Automatic annotation (TrEMBL):
Protein biosynthesis as UniProt keyword: no
Species whose genome carries this gene: Amycolatopsis xylanica
Residue ranges of every copy of the Thioesterase domain listed in the record: 73-150
Protein's name in the database: Uncharacterized domain 1-containing protein
GO molecular function: fatty acyl-CoA hydrolase activity
Top-level taxonomic group: Bacteria
Organism taxonomic ancestry: Bacteria, Bacillati, Actinomycetota, Actinomycetes, Pseudonocardiales
UniProt keyword annotations, A-Z: Hydrolase
InterPro entries membership: ACOT13, HotDog_dom_sf, PAAI_dom, Thioestr_dom
NCBIfam families named in the record: unchar_dom_1
Family, similarity comment: Belongs to the thioesterase PaaI family.
Amino acid sequence: MAVREKTITWEDPLAAAEAGRELSGLEYMTGIVEGRFPQPPIAAHFGMTLKIIGPGDVIFAATPDESLYNPIGMVHGGVAATMLDSAIGCAVHTTLPAGVGYTSVELKVNFLRAIHGHTGEIRAHGWVVKPGSRIAFAEADLRDADGKLLATASSTCLIMKP
């Protein structure tokens, strides 16, 4: 068997998170897209990048490779779920004032098509359906470069005030 390697690097996530507490969610997420703050470490593991940000709306992109395969030779469903959860959570974050956080309470994912190393770039688009002061509802979809729908998700996020 041929052995392959993949090196993953990231910046200190706690320093960025601390700085982010002083900004609204939209300001912080915009800072990530603009490179003023580093991408979160999970993004390095999956090769994900936060590409587009707006109020209640975000897009992540990644190009999965064979390092993300499951035992049957396809990209693990957890990659799709992570991208969808990230898109949903970050979309919710853009609606929050400074110092307020969130966490996923539940995530419902529908896997519609297999993802392979040759699929190319995939994009997770997340949007807020209903923002809230205690609970927010959001959805996301995952598509390939041709716009084919690969997976969908809906989620409830708990809003955490200091």
